[in-house]
Amino acid sequence: MSIITISSLTKTYDGGGIEVKALRGIDLAIGRGEFTAIAGPSGSGKTTLLNLIGGLDHPTSGALSVAGSDLNHMTPRQLSDIRLNKIGFIFQAYNLIPVLSALENVEYILLLQGVKKNERRDRSRRILEEVGLGNEINRLPKELSGGQQQRVAVARAIVSEPELVLADEPTANLDQKTGSSLLDLMHDLNHQKNITFLFSTHDAMVMDYAERLIRLSDGMIISDEKKKSGRQSPVKKIKKKK
Amino acid sequence: MIANMMETAINIKTFIMLGWRNLWRQKRRSLVVILSITIGVVLMLLQIAIMNGMITQMLENNISTKLGHISIAKKGFFDDMKLESNFLPDPRMLDRISKEKNVVAVAPRVKAFAMIRTSEASRGVIVMGIYPDREKNISKINEYTLNEEGSRYLDDPSANDILISKTLAEKLDVVVGDKVVLLVQDEDNEMTGVGLTVRGLFQTPVRDYDNGVVYMGIKRLQEITGLKDNVSEVMVIVKNKDIVDSVKPRIMKSVADDDLEILTWKEMAPFLLSAIAMIDKQMIVFYFIVFITIIFSIANTLIMSIMERFHELGVMKSIGTRPSQIFFIIMFEAMNLGAVGLAAGVVVSIAAVNILAIKGIDFSLFMEAMRQWGAGSVIYPLIYVKDIIISIVVVEFTTLLAAMYPALKAARIKPLEALHYI
Question: B337 and B402 in contact (C-beta within 8 Å)?
Fold first, then answer.
């Protein structure tokens, strides 16, 4: 069963009087629990596609359904609710709220959802422990390393157990070791919680991890390859050998 | 809609906390705004306190010299102060009035136009015939009598003594112990003169009063004018000036005489009420100045703050924060700014008013103007709870008004646009 269904999706921008066709008729279906990467060079349309799936932008034409909701015909308020309840976001630049601690950043989503205080605290703490930040919960983002901040961002994205997590170049600002361990984490979460992950990336390591790799070029899908299972990180392999 | 508001209400604590923390991200900028609000509030409250002091003193001084709280006189006396508008106060009526609830003192007076003359000069005055002892509970003329150069208050209602103001004494070139001639019209409209000794000098805070009023014993004045036991008016003092309207109907009942007229100080001196109304209007100007200061500083700060956090607000919207919630976060940020400035302003103002009220503020430089108003040259500032409530309402209302535009702007941020804005 698909969590994302896209057909004939196009997106055209007005680039100062010149029409820029970012997406030129995308047809795609992503199943529940998939760990998929959308790859392609800069300007290929991968971020545009992710933004449309996340309800952050409107398509020029075509149909787009996420978690059973037709995003084409939604008000900003409805889109806001879909983003809050069904989709988790991970950004390239972490984008944590700087005045909130790690725990409060994670808790923020549950707060918006109206979850009661005690439950909010417990769930946020638990998830931060799962991402390996049990001892850093009261630190502000500026007191955390890039890798730690991105882990908080992952915790924030999954704390409400969304059906889909969209990650826009999540490893782009991280070194290889940190990026790899973050991918391990997301891979584990994907398997344990059956959360669908959809990445946009041009990082070969992310492509390697993905169980399905969709390549975009010039706003069109040029390949869609399903692998049996994503590669494990070299770090994890070494640990297992020991 | 209601569900939406309920959800928002649940999150209010967090939004206030977010607003509070965001406020201190730019400490120096926030402190400058807070300081400007504080200064605005202090200036506004001090101005109000001085005006309150002035109004109170103006009223008290006018009441404690010429007006009293309630006056009973023959019909027409208040419009045209003629000696023949006199009446014989019924002792039972006076007894009934003094027993009325909230009545503190009752005393008769004789009032007449007169001419005071010395070898050097002459002046037209109003002569007040009083019972020196009973007058102590009616007016403050006893307290206003100076204790210098042998000056003392009257003691005998039948004596040939007169009490004049220091100003008048200078104009007439007399000192305590000198003789003056008082010319008054008697009941038969004949001019009659009597030689009186200046027993004392007084100085009230009301300039006109000093220029034009003299005091002597009521018995002696009744004798000169041929009024026998008749009086011009009966003065009534009640517990405080603000209850005159409720006491008046009961006094009217006790008097029960259609020939007599009963007026409160408000009716006798409508000019005082219009002066207060004018001062109140001036206050609006001060509120407006504070209003403008706050509007611009808050709006400016918030717009800058929102522009700096454009990306961050976009992230918040991307992860599911509703526009209405963004709106509240910005509004709370403004409310926090206003509340801190307001609290500091109120504390400083109360402290300043209390310190200044110990010795009063000396406005001697503007002595003549102040005396003309009857307020006295030293003003004791006064602040009421209602003034503080008004300042809280003005500041918070203004703050919220100023925050509306920035908050709406923030609420309308398009998440995608903001995400690309670094």
Answer: no
